[in-house]
Protein: DNA-binding HxlR family transcriptional regulator
Amino acid sequence: MGTAPRPGRPVRGSATGRPVMAALDLLGRRWTLRVIWELHQSGAPIGFRDLQRRCDAMSSSVLSARLTDLREASIAAPTDETTWRLTPLGEDLVTAMGPLLDWSRTWADQR
Structure:
C-alpha cells in the first residue's frame, strides 16, 4: 500500500480519516493541485517529461511521487508507460473545484 491519504485512515488533521480531511491532506501536498491542473489543461494524455516541463520543471522525484499519490487515489492513471491522464473521478474533482476558481477570480479583482 502506498502513502496517499485514504478515507477511513488517520490523515493530517483527522485521526478518523474523514473523507473531506483525507481529500484536503492529499490536495494539500506540494505540487498536487498543479499536477491535477496540468493534466486537466492538456485535454489528452500527457507524457511525464511534458508534464514536468508544464509544472515549472519540478523535480522528477516529486512528480513521480505526486503521480503515485494520484494513481493510488484513483484521480490520475497512466495510459501507457510514459503518459498520464485524469480519471473520471479526477475530472469530477476539477469540476468540484470550479467554484473555488470562480472565487479566486473575484478575490483577484478585489485586490
